[in-house]
Amino acid sequence: MVTPNQTQPIATAKNKPWGVPGEEHNLVVVPRFLGQEPIPTPEETKGTPGKYRVQLLLSRPGYSISGERQHSFIDGIVGDSHVLIAKPVQERGPNDAVSVLLQANSATSTLKFVGLPNDRGYLGKIVVETVDALNFADAGKKAYEQLAPFLSSWSLHLDIPVHVETIQATNLETNASSLRVRTPQFDMTFPGGLTPPLTANFCQYASIYREGMNTNSGFYRFLCFYKILESIPRRRARTNEAAKNAGQPVRQFREIIPATHEQLISLLRDVYPWRTQWDTFALEQMIPIEAAGRKIGWVREKHLTPLRVGIAHALLDTGEVTMTLDNMEQVQQVNRWLPLCRVLARLLLRNEFPDEFALTMMPFVFDNV
Length: 369
Description:
Shape: elongated
Oligomer: single chain
């Protein structure tokens, strides 16, 4: 959250990143006037009921509009896509198209969207000027869910990706804005010394973890980390059964999700031994309140498995498709649990493969963390 003591919102934020690297959160700017309290209230940071302007910035997958370490509010930015809607700016005449208009109807409202071209003529931003909403999240949800069916239909009919890079919601009364951003990853070096021998089993799990880290799809990212959380307990059951039959001791683990920041920091030192500091926002982002102090298996079955089942109904299970991945609530729930899934995947991998997980020398981190 950024709250400048000025009447104009901040345009960019290049300071040290906060939050869990690689995960999504919202950057909120609440304009302040002289004489006002510098710190906004929780209600201001969430947004208040009223009318909102929502902008959805498009980009070509793999080609981000902004730099990795630069978060920019998008009022003056038009993105990019594979959808050509106008002539290049130098060729446009007074009678040439300069936008496309879309009208989306739901059971409760009708929204009108304006699609804007970039200088090369490609659709780069879609804007709805007025949405009645309860807060920033509600405004973004309403706009996205009514627009997304158009985007999915274009992707199908035109056989092209149509990617929403970020969403900005602005309260038209207060001029406060919320922007969806992703905390950048840290820059690292290779560790020194000899790498422990890597077993085939460890490499299988490491490859799944890398798939999760490489993708920008929250759904696929969740499935990768969930697969590790689901598979390692089954691997333990199999190896313990074999040990028991051979008269050997079985392994037992007591893996509890931390209930306090102090407990979480202690766990993080084990799974991120090269990182020495964690900001408060990152710590709060990692553990949803429902999971604090619970066993990993309980959280997996109670909260993570229902999400996995919902995604699987759309992507993996046999039979007809019964849900849409354009549902913003589903997207937000997956993003909410992703930081914890990632930390727990690292914890289980460290406990299951201590030799391979540990490094003979710690890598060097370029960021001041």
